[in-house]
């Protein structure tokens, strides 16, 4: 899913390279195949823009998936930070880094300069809400010379290159940033935790650096993208992209099957058998579907009642029946797609004993943009009822659910989360989702042991040590019973027979690139 407050950054991940994948010209993995390009692509996405394509919230990954925006760095297939708009970088000291920019142009024809990059990062630091990649972080950026920008952090940050790969830290031209009075703001200065005041809306249309430029939007239903012919990575095969936002998974699949679209993301498991095998792409991801229990108010504020709900859940049945084998039973917050977490089973002794449910009334909510979630919620409703709970189910479209879920208006929420979506740092994910100050804390977890474990993990600079500490922090989170892991997902994409070069990204940041064509 694509939340308002996105997870932030640090540490190195080791994701397995996808078999049958190759490096596109922009460095992304894509499926093999040859074919002529030049035509427009028709793409159906599950999540409509929720914030007028602001790069600072839920829409950041929409822009990156469609090849509109780029960052200074990008995650490669192993989860390491690789070059993007920055072609190289060096660490001057514990808090200072220098990034050397490649020669590139913004889609408005201006050059990507160190001053423009510094300005973009400064504006991100003034956004309200703050991008999760900058939550709890203070950094400043300044031009060094014609090609280099220096970034200084308030505290030592060994994984800054990973942090800067976050889609919410896309680099846009100065034209994208306007004050409420309509005049550009000056670039440079402090980003993250600054006191410069709120930023007005940011317009990525024609101001980004990717191979496609956002030309037109029709509310939350359609978007038109044109090829950016001066893209630094070379001319894209497709001349443009026509995007439809279709929340209903069956409707997305039908649009592919009828030839209305060339690519349909997130095909429901229930629809997989209706597509020819060559049309289906199964992508192992770092996405975990979980049950989040409201620890701040309502029945699940009682740890013993949370324990009763946790004991009622049969996650294996969900993986086998709802996902029909296209998912793995949830063992923790981090799935088997992450090699450092594969095979780890948290030791969870010492949790509170379960109370009797005694017909305790709870409201369970989920969203239908990911088509399996309502069915998962229905199965959980039955499992909880069997355990003695009285359960009311509420299903909405994601953009209509998120704010209420974050405000704690439901007793429980079923949600799917790519734990490595933004920067590939498990510690940042844990901090944003499960600490007292977290920006995307669906369960409302506020526990001293969790905060302490996450802080200890965040202090680890060595990648292996950081991973070990993240697993220890995961155990602290699971002991609260605020979250019950259900399944680790594989995403199914529907791709037309004539389409080549669709990007298979375990982080779900990219879908279309320069090599995508039909």
TrEMBL record:
InterPro entries: Peptide/Ni-bd, SBP_5, SBP_5_dom. PROSITE patterns: PROKAR_LIPOPROTEIN. It comes from Streptomyces luomodiensis. The keyword Signal applies. This is ABC transporter substrate-binding protein. Keywords: Signal. Residues 1-23 form the signal peptide. Pfam families: SBP_bac_5 (PF00496). The lineage of its organism: Bacteria, Bacillati, Actinomycetota, Actinomycetes, Kitasatosporales. Residues 83-440 form the Solute-binding protein family domain.
